[in-house]
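Action item from last week, closing it out:
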Amino acid sequence: MTYTTDSSPCVKIASYNLHGFNQGAGMLLELCASFDVIFCEEHWLTSDQLVKINNLSRDFHCISMSAVDTGYHVWSWNFEGPTLWWPCSAGT
């Protein structure tokens, strides 16, 4: 967490479209260094592959879902695999 000039806490939030886990994982790790909360989409992982994104950083908690094998993508491909990341230091 960062602070404003008057010492008030400031939460930095990012939204990122991975365009596939393999393509976007590197940038996601870079975002972890600069933001407190990260919303991701389009990781394109199946349920049994979610461990890849959930364990990408030991400094962040992650909750994610797969739309690849649930049929969710049939009506909303824009939210293919939504994921939320927040720092471990913030608690669970």
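Closing note: The chain has one domain: 2-90.
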